[in-house]
Amino acid sequence: MAIPIIMPRQGQSVESCLIGKWHKQVGDSVAAGDLLFTYETDKATFDETAKVSGTMLAIFAAEGDDVPCLQNVCVIGQPGDSFAQFDPRGGAAPATETLAAPAAAVAPVAAAPAAAVAVAPAAPSGPAGTPVIMPRQGQSVESCLIGKWHKQVGDAVAEGDLLFTYETDKATFDETAKVSGTMLAIFAAEGDDVPCLQNVCVIGQPGDSFAQFDPTGASAAVAPVTETVAPAAPAAVQTGSANAHIGTDLPAGALPEKISPRARALAEKSGADLRQATATGPQGRVISRDVEALIAAGKVSTGAVGTAFPAGLAGTGLGGAVSLQDLSAPTVPVAAATPAAAPIAVPAATPAAADEIRVEKHSNIRKVIARSMQASLSQMAQLTLNTSFDATDLLALRARLKKAGEKGLTAEMGFALAEKAPTINDLILFAVSRVLSRHPACNAHYDDEKMTYFSRVHLGVAVDTPRGLMVPTVFAADQMDLPTLATEVKAAAKACQTGTISPDALKGGTFTVTNLGSLGIETFTPVINPPQTCILGVNTIVTKVREVNGEVKVYQAIPLSLTFDHRALDGAPAARFLQDLVRVLENISLALMHG
């Protein structure tokens, strides 16, 4: 079966890429992992490697061509396979290079066994539909979870319609339709961990073929979607996670062949025994929810044991973990050692009681936040210092800027701050970016072996979103003037709110600021984002009094809460940073004069 190769999308803002050089030509033998072509964005050059083996059947773009992202650029298959249906210019336009193709523009799909599907015995043989792939959100993202399908098989689809929601380990995104038609097939179920750039569904006209796009190969025996399809037919083409399961009788040390990166990382962290995992991901792939099921079932081991024990061995450690002591103890079959427990009668819930609860599964983002915050609090020696600064100068500056803007002073006249007055948070972020350079231990990363100090301030800004807490990074904030910093922060916050933020923008921070002032919070204990060493909490405006020349004066103050990692720095250096920051904020007008 011929497989089309698309032009990858390197970031949300990239719409097309240039073909730099072809490393394979039509007729060449291709092995999985071979370099196919080099392509360029306006900022970087990338290599595209083969995911399948076969022969290069066709090339649809020449070196130097500007190709839209996600458009087919070549086809790999076996000599004689049809490929005309993948040509983005249509069958009438000759390919740049092609291997001798069969006479028919599209080869019919082989008939399916009669017993495979109850609706009809033959697969669709019309023109090919349009596959929709799992987008790649950032260079470090290898796979994404399907969160929710908003269209089902048989549904009409208009260009721009929301197809599905998907999640990385940091953010949630929406995928919309680029073409109109009918949803012909769905290849991944909600909760499935799907590799980036893999087909997840097909849109076309009733009767169009889609089996050639199924990454599992399970659609070859599926009936077509037609205008008069029965109500039960749509479910027949949802191949989703109906994959082969990995057994639990693997020998010691043997692991499943297909494990997602997130599942592997979670297993290494928790000690979960992957040999006992039941794969629910696409194509028999073990995904993070399978590892979570192992942890919940107590199928874990201590770090000293690893997997050097028979799969299924009952542990006596904390939470049922297998320990070194269990390895030296006589092996007793679990079934024989544990007598069947008598069933416990549980009173049925009354209808009234059932109405009082609502159960929702944790989103992927919520799980990530939970793991990160728990790890932060359990692995760090966190301590919070609280102080406040006299906000008289800061508030007076904002008032003057607003008044100047009302008078018509604009950026074209040289009054950028007057045209759009910065927020209190903008001014605090600006001050933080300038003070941190004098306190390197606060602008650093800590691990058990070393401290990493940064010459630039990469400022994390906590943003509350409907999907959960996100912390986008404003890189090199210390190099920005106040209007630029304010613009960058606003854009990052908006991207988080709308779910369009790139995962690459949610990492790399060296210091984080979180502001709960708008919610009336007077003091709190912010939690550090590892491996950073500090986080600053900003609180609401409060009224304070002080004695001046024997008189009691009232003034406006803003409390600050600095949490620092006592492993990385001591209390006095952290206090000196806070003291320095207060001094700058209380004289923010002068600080702005020096940039």
Describe this structure in a few short sentences.
The chain has twelve helices and 28 strands. With 595 residues, it is α+β, with helices and mostly antiparallel strands. It is globular.
Shape: globular
Classified by CATH, the class of the largest domain is: Alpha Beta
CATH architecture of the largest domain: 2-Layer Sandwich
In total, how many beta strands? 28
Mean pLDDT: 80
**What's the alpha carbon Rg, rounded to whole Å?**
30 Å
Count of DSSP helices?
A: 12
Biggest pleated sheet: 7 strands, mixed
Instruction: Fill in the CATH topology of the largest domain.
Output: Chloramphenicol Acetyltransferase
Key phrases:
595 residues, 28 strands, alpha+beta, 4 domains, OB fold (Dihydrolipoamide Acetyltransferase, E2P), five-stranded antiparallel β-sheet
Give a description of the structure.
The protein has 595 residues and is an alpha+beta fold. The chain has twelve helices and 28 strands. The strands form seven sheets. Strands 18, 21, 24, 25, 26, 27 and 28 form a seven-stranded mixed beta sheet that branches. Strands 1, 3, 6, 8 and 9 form a five-stranded antiparallel beta sheet that branches. A hairpin with a 4-residue loop joins β19 and β20. The longest helix has 17 residues, at 482-498.
